[in-house]
């Protein structure tokens, strides 16, 4: 029985991840995702990730691209307080796929991107045999056009996430960074 479940879980895992095609242009230069971003929406097949302040709910501020990784500078809400965190997403042998060890092992896929406007990243993690997906929409501006939101909804739908499991992060109290101590710049610049 458990073997059967395991087999089903693995098939599902392969199935969901196989849906990731990466950016339309296979020669897209991932270095272009560097710089300042805003979290405008997120979605998940696991409701608690979007309703609660779990480690999966974060607000992006900046991405640095190094030869071996993407450094995601984010803020998370921990017990109501904003905490800056850096997540290192190591590059893998596969293009536009990264691994991160942040509260467990996760795989991150860069999916759709228009480097001047938006980027969609999809994160997969497995807990107790259940595969959980979180999709993030980052924008270069604090809000996005209806076209981009529509595209994001469509992306979520194609990946099995119901529209009720999408949250607009521009409306639900963006996690503002706490004031840096006087005289100290932000750790990742303006
Ligand atoms: C990412 O790379 C660093 C340095 O090579 C390594 O220490 C770390 O374990 C890696 N993390 C993951 C999740 O593979
Ligand atoms: C992931 O992080 C945990 C706890 O920090 C550590 O024990 C584990 O070795 C790390 N795994 C990898 C692949 O880096």
Which helices and strands occur, and which strands form pairs?
Layout lengths: L1 H17 L16 E2 L1 E7 L2 H5 L6 E8 L3 E10 L2 E11 L5 E5 L3 E10 L3 E10 L2 E10 L6 H13 L7 E3 L22
Antiparallel strand pairs: 1-3, 2-9, 2-10, 3-4, 4-5, 5-6, 6-7, 7-8, 8-9
The structure holds 2-acetamido-2-deoxy-beta-D-glucopyranose (2 copies).
Globular, elongated, flat, extended or rod-shaped: what is the shape?
A: globular
Q: Please count the helical segments.
A: 3
Low-pLDDT sequence parts: 175-190
* CATH homolog superfamily: Calycin beta-barrel core domain
Bound small-molecule species = 2-acetamido-2-deoxy-beta-D-glucopyranose
Task: Briefly note the structural class of the backbone.
Answer: alpha+beta
The CATH class label is Mainly Beta
Gross CATH architecture = Beta Barrel
**What integer is the average pLDDT?**
83
By CATH, the topology is: Lipocalin
Largest sheet properties: 10 strands, antiparallel
End-to-end span in angstroms?
54 Å
Taking all Cα atoms into account, the compactness measure Rg is 17 Å
Spatial ordering of strands, largest sheet: 1-3-4-5-6-7-8-9-2-10
Strand residue percentage: 35-45%
Instruction: Provide the helix percentage.
Output: 10-25%
Based on DSSP secondary structure assignment, what is the total number of beta strands?
Answer: 10
Structurally, the number of domains stands at 1
Task: Please provide the ordered H/E string of secondary-structure elements.
Answer: HEEHEEEEEEEHE
Pfam family, one: Lipocalin
InterPro entries: Calycin, Lipocalin, Lipocln_cytosolic_FA-bd_dom, Maj_urinary
Subcellular location: Secreted
GO molecular function: small molecule binding
């Amino acid at each position: 029985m458990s073997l059967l479940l395991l087999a089903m879980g693995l098939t599902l895992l392969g199935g969901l991840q196989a849906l990731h095609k990466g950016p339309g242009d296979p020669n897209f230069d991932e270095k272009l995702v560097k710089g300042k971003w805003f979290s405008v929406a997120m979605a998940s097949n696991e409701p608690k990730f979007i309703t609660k302040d779990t480690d999966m709910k974060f607000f992006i501020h900046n991405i640095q691209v190094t030869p071996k990784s993407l450094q995601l500078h984010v803020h998370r809400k921990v017990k109501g307080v904003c905490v800056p965190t850096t997540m290192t997403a190591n590059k893998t042998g596969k293009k536009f796929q990264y691994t991160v060890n942040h509260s467990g092992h996760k795989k991150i896929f860069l999916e759709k991107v228009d480097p001047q406007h938006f980027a969609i990243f999809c994160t997969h993690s497995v807990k107790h045999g259940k595969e959980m997906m979180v999709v993030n929409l980052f924008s270069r501006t604090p809000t996005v056009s209806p076209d981009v939101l529509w595209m994001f909804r469509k992306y979520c739908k194609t990946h099995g996430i119901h529209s009720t499991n999408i949250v607009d992060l521009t409306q639900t109290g963006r996690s503002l960074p706490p004031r840096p101590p006087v005289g100290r710049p932000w750790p990742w610049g303006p």
